[in-house]
Design goal:
The chain has 353 residues and is mostly helical. The protein has one domain. The protein is built from 13 helices and four strands. It has helices at residues 7-35, 58-72, 77-99, 103-119, 143-160, 167-185, 189-209, 218-235, 248-252, 254-269, 282-288, 293-314, 319-352; strands at residues 39-40, 53-54, 126-129, 135-138. The protein has a two-stranded antiparallel ribbon with strand order 1-2. A two-stranded antiparallel ribbon has the order 3-4. α6 runs parallel beside α8. The longest helix is centred in the last third of the chain and has 34 residues, at 319-352. The radius of gyration is 20 Å and the shape is globular.
Length: 353
């Protein structure tokens, strides 16, 4: 019945189902986190919470997401592979939130989850070559490493940005909605429904996670969200044989992907383990330069929304799309200049004192 409903109705019902489940289950999940001692304690330099906060909120998000997916998505091999991979990531994240697993073990599980998706048919098989006329190159044996690399990067990108109350959940909503619009525009109805369920689950969790947070999503949430967003892009937009659609996922997820690239580059230059946690992420920089936590979160929401607008504009042609793209780049440039100016003034004040 639901599978034959018009797409807008399926999107709405999938988002509503995931939202209701996540909102209803989050208080119970917070109680579970306290019972198993999955608690974020203040004290570490990279943590910003000033009191003990339970983790595992991602369990509620995923319960909502999987409930909606079972009802509103048809059984399909590639989707099944992604779901199995997501469950494996979620289990690893749950154990990590409870017992703090070692980084090499987590990376191995992420790679295994990506391979499961690839074997089921969820894979990057072609790449565009933007030279003259758009051409597409079949990847062949390179499909597996590129698919695994993309999914592992996305998995860790959302995890790394989960450092402020409401930040990762809000960015996941913005990224999901952005790719939802594009997926619907290129007739990828199943991917649009998957993304609607993901956005709905995050929205149901957000009231409990906004500052001051009553619960964190934990690795079980952030890593699985990153994996699912990366898989959704791979199933839908990377398969579309149009040059600009290949740029949509990086644009839609520009904030977490950019932060991850910055973090790995910074650690490599310092000869540190790239998986070693530190206090050098974008949100930490904003806090260290005098911005409040809520201000930083809303600013990063704005940056994510601007990159999402650019992603949507990339799939359209005409004056309106070009205007959106120009406006997005102008706003991004103005934001960057403002941040640089703020940082320069802060340095001058510290030097003067």
């Amino acid at each position: 019945m639901f599978l034959s409903s018009p797409l807008p109705m399926r999107l709405f019902l999938a988002a509503l189902t995931a939202f209701a489940c996540a909102a209803a289950l989050t208080p119970s999940v917070a109680g579970l986190a306290r019972r198993v001692n999955a608690i974020d304690l203040p004290g570490e330099a990279r943590r910003v919470n000033r009191r003990a906060v339970p983790r595992l909120g991602g369990v509620a998000i995923l319960m909502g997401f999987f409930t909606a997916a079972l009802v509103f998505l048809p059984p399909r091999a590639a989707l099944g592979g992604v779901m199995r991979g997501a469950l494996l990531i979620a289990l690893m994240g749950f154990l990590d939130d409870c017992f703090s697993l070692r980084a090499p073990l987590k990376l191995a599980v992420q790679i295994l989850s990506a391979v499961l998706a690839w074997r089921a048919g969820a894979r990057i098989e072609v790449l565009s070559v933007p030279l003259g006329e758009a051409r597409f190159v079949t990847l062949g044996s390179l499909s597996l490493p590129l698919t695994v690399g993309w999914l592992v990067i996305c998995t860790n990108a959302m995890n790394l940005i989960d450092g402020l109350d409401g930040l990762a959940a809000g960015v996941a909503v913005i990224g999901s909605v952005t790719m939802l619009f594009v997926a619907a525009a290129v007739s990828e109805a199943e991917i649009a429904v998957l993304l609607a369920a993901l956005a709905g689950g995050c929205l149901g969790f957000l009231p409990y996670n906004r500052s001051p947070a009553r619960i964190f999503m934990g690795d079980v949430g952030s890593q699985t969200l990153g994996y699912l967003l990366g898989a959704a892009a791979m199933l839908g937009l990377f398969k579309a044989h149009a040059l600009l659609t290949f740029l949509v996922p990086p644009a839609a997820l520009a904030l977490p992907l950019g932060d991850t690239l910055f973090a790995f580059t910074r650690r490599a230059l310092r000869r540190q383990n790239p998986l070693h946690a530190d206090r050098g992420h974008i949100h930490h920089i904003l806090l260290d330069h005098g911005m409040g936590q809520k201000q930083a979160v809303w600013l990063l929401y704005g940056v994510s929304a601007l990159s999402g607008l650019l992603a949507v504009a990339l799939t359209e042609t005409g004056d309106a799309a070009r205007a959106i793209g120009a406006l997005t780049l102008t706003c991004a440039g103005a934001t960057a200049c403002a941040l640089i100016r703020k940082r320069t003034l802060a340095r001058r004040r510290r030097s003067a004192s």
